[in-house]
User: What shape does this take?
Amino acid sequence: MKKRKRLNDILEIPKEIYSNIPNIIITGFEDMIIENYKGIIEYEDYYVRINIFIGVINIHGINLKLEKMTEDNLKIIGKIDSIELERFVDE
Assistant: This one.
């Protein structure tokens, strides 16, 4: 594993490409892409909970919709009011 990380560092490959670390892209208050997610915990038009490998993302807003969903990426649109991150505690 250390050799792979070292090779990725030499090649300057972003960490989110070769790991499960999520990448969150927010454009304004109406567009959000989450890369490297595990699943959807809860989905309402005013609240979305997304399970990621290191915790949970809570999104509050109005008219929230899952616009695109692939195995690795999720796009949420709507009026985003707030985003809360819950980190899993390492034991």
